[in-house]
Amino acid sequence: MSKRLVILGAGESGVGAAILGKKEGYEVFVSDRGLIELKYKQVLIQEEIEWEAEKHTEDKILNADLVMKSPGIPEDAPLVLKLKENGIKVISEIEFASKYTHASLIGITGSNGKTTVTSWIYHVLKNGDLDAIMAGNIGDSFAKNVALKNPDYYVLELSSFQLDGIETFNPHIAVLTNITPDHLDRYHHNFEEYIASKFRIVKNQTNKDYFIYDADNKTICNWLKKNKISSIQLPMSLKEHEGEGAYLKDDKIYIKVNNTEFIMHKDKIALKGEHNTKNAMAATTVAQLLKIRKQTIRESLESFQGVEHRLERVLKINNVQYINDSKATNINATYYALDSVQPETVWIVGGVDKGNVYEELLPLVNEKVKAIICLGVDNEKIINSFSNCVETIVETKSMEEAVKMAYHLAEKGNTVLLSPACASFDLFKNYEDRGRQFKEYVRQL
């Protein structure tokens, strides 16, 4: 008899897992407590997979042999707890899909920079003519790709939520870009729980695998002092260090792995800023491990264009630069954004607060920001945090209103920066929707 696979959540990862489950001979049932997007509904109908929307019928779920839950459903959701009480294994799509591929896995996680690093690694691999697919938290789901394709390499962007549901998942190369407080609402406001979640990426690594990490991040270094891991450690730092890994010296990046050395001036790297120097180090270290030609790596560092919604320059209007950084959903990401702009910036901020401590931004806001436009349902925390150092703080209820207000407040030579430091779910579908609306209304000015 075929085993019963129940999938909770019919989004990208859920429908991808359903396709793979059916291919691997499972009896598949998909259940979503909300509405299912039309494009996903059509796939389920076409694949003849049983599904339900706007409810979870427990009789059809509690008889599962295996449950795959979408990353959006918390580990302590009542239905998930009930499944575990009944001894039913609940895993993530990443765990499920990894069992059915022989490809070499490169996993990237971190509070910030993971989309940029994932895209940059993929860019270098493609330029090096390696057969690679980018998936995970970006593009088509990992499971859907495993069902339909058979590449040599997967470059996977992994959120902490995806890592929470792994048991045996093991990337040959793991990258941890940084750890700063984020998603604390999901982790019982316990930073230690969130840190442990990120470090699950190395949980199953062996002494034949590699771990690339930010050695300037105190949180990462403190964890590594207290916990032993099996993989080969390759630290990245803006300060020179002994041994293998990456560092910056005299404005040049040095990458040393497996007795080979790569050197390049940081000014040649396409994306600017200290955080992008680190992102470039991560991509280069992976490329060196995979023995990609140095010339190809150089060209890939010079030609990479960055990702949408991450410090994306939209337009210059009346000598005012409009920048879309909608992907900045936490304080640390917004810190990078404010650090990269000129003084006299009009800053659009706000949304669903995930436990933010805005005080960390005070020095930069003091130096760079001339006006704040709040874009959220509840802006009280933002107003209280910055009313002493920014004279002009206005509240808006839509992106159109926020962009028009920014246009009135900005003068020649100013920057208008959308860098919300918050999740988007109060007024938008997701951060992409927020960023696209921003660009759309800027183009209408």
Automatic annotation (TrEMBL):
ATP binds at G110, S111, N112, G113, K114, T115, T116. It is an enzyme of class 6 (ligase). Its EC number is 6.3.2.9. Residues 108-287 form the Mur ligase central domain. GO terms for cellular component: cytoplasm. It comes from the Bacteria. GO terms for biological process: cell division; cell wall organization; peptidoglycan biosynthetic process; regulation of cell shape. It catalyses: UDP-N-acetyl-alpha-D-muramoyl-L-alanine + D-glutamate + ATP = UDP-N-acetyl-alpha-D-muramoyl-L-alanyl-D-glutamate + ADP + phosphate + H(+). Residues 309-422 form the Mur ligase C-terminal domain. Keywords: ATP-binding, Cell cycle, Cell division, Cell shape, Cell wall biogenesis/degradation, Cytoplasm, Ligase, Nucleotide-binding, Peptidoglycan synthesis. Pathway: Cell wall biogenesis; peptidoglycan biosynthesis. It is found in: Cytoplasm. GO terms for molecular function: ATP binding; UDP-N-acetylmuramoylalanine-D-glutamate ligase activity. Cell wall formation. Catalyzes the addition of glutamate to the nucleotide precursor UDP-N-acetylmuramoyl-L-alanine (UMA). Belongs to the MurCDEF family. HAMAP family: MurD. This is UDP-N-acetylmuramoylalanine--D-glutamate ligase.
